[in-house]
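Troubleshooting log. The previous structure file for this entry was overwritten by mistake, so regenerating from the original sequence record. Sequence copied from the archived sheet and checked twice against the printout by T.R.
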Amino acid sequence: MALAMARPWKHPTTGIYWLRKRVPDELRTLLGKTEEKQSLRTRDPAQAKIKQLEVLAAVEARWANLKAGPRTLVQ
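Regenerated output below.
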């Protein structure tokens, strides 16, 4: 059985592709939402796949910083 890869979601009215990703349980209270949604600003499916990887990397990096918790500033 093959694993399903995340793919861009096409808005039914506008045809613009979006990234949709479920927020991890440990970050739901901190973010105040259950799903992360962001427009990929394209109607081209090939370009949407590329942009999805870029946006997904940024979202994952932001979540990793939130999971790490507060850090002290050092000069």
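The first helix runs from residue 25 to 31. Archived copy saved in two places this time.
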